[in-house]
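TOKENISED FOLD:
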Amino acid sequence: MIENGDHVLAGVSGGADSVCLLRVLCDLRARMGFSLSAVHVEHGIRGEESLSDAAFVRELCQTLEVPLLSFSVDAPGRAGERHQSLEEAARDLRYECFYEACRQLGANRLAVAHHGDDCAETLLFHLSRGTGIRGLCGIVPVRKLEQVEATLIRPLLCLTRADIEQMLQDFGQDYRTDSTNLDESLSRNRIRSQVLPQLRQINPAAVSHMVRTAGYMEEVCAYLDAAAWEAGAHLIRYVPEAGHPQEIRIRRSGFTELPGVLQKNLLQRLLGELAGSRKDITATHVEQVQALFAAQVGKHSDLPYQMQAEAGYEEVFLKRRNRKENDKELPTQELDTSGGIQQFNGMEITAKLFPFDGNFQQIPEKTYTKWFDYDKIKDTVQIRTRRPGDRIQVRSGGGHKKLKDYLIDSKIPQSQRDSLVLLADGKEIIWVVGMRISEAYKITQETKRILSVCVNGGEEKNE
């Protein structure tokens, strides 16, 4: 991970893991002959608590004589701009700052504080969501970075969280606690606080065993990457040949003769190349494309990153879909519940709140006027068009359906799906305007407040 003469940049949040990383690197720098700097990112999320963390890191680095570069960012703002979760936006901003710090300081090693429990959490998270072999690799200890001329290293990956806490106790070193790590509405936090303790009761070494397995799977993936490319590279054409491709063509005959595991590996690689990232490309997407090699001509599958796969006569095409100018995704708007008029995609939308008196007979049965139970809404209501992962509750008992599947079942032409106006509560669709509303937000005897939404611009009719 580190050689004599390296410049190591440590990401330090102030939490136990990163503080332990900094202390370990401080103890090693003289013996191993490397220079050490630190970077801290304040995400603009937790107010005074976050600013206090930044002050703690600054004082710690001064005491340890470690140069520190600090950044302040607006994670909530980024999340809104890019339609990301707050957690995802914060992570993206954090690593952007890390890369910039590497450039400014000339660091060729970026050290982060992931440990064995993090690797096990990642492994379990991928398993629970559904994953291919690559998702079983967990967190790798060393990775070359494409964004900057540096290598990402994780020196604490061989330790558990308990090991880290014991080392900090031995150092006599305090640290900060991020209150968001206690929020069990986040999947990873639930795995950390509920699942891993149960697995340790089965075997105290459960985490170390999972980390070892992840290492084995990384070796398997590296072998399969090489084997798949050697077996299938001659079947692939890039269009255009130079630069980032807009289309990749794979010959059907020949590809179908490859072992299934090599087919999947090759497709995952190609989808990642076309998209510019493998993030959000799941085993399900790979299997959808794989099925097209046995499908009739014209069969296609929509994929993340505005990609589409289509079966041709002799080839399967992986394409980036270029939206026409008038088909661009419309900016998301927050629903105004004060009774004002909002414009969206040629429609006028008016929404207001009022108490419900229990009179079900007054509920409007119109296509473009709907009432909803406002207290069932978890987030801010958004007016927007569809996104990957959207879903709608179609049964009163709680059955959900992917929005894409609902639109297919409703025989909505593909060319019209991206322009449909939606009311959304995160990934939950409240109303496909002009069509059905979600069962999850319907009014019941327990309803206290009603959200009334009226849309002008559609062809109104009684239902």
In short: The chain is about 35% helix and 20% strand. The mean pLDDT is 88.
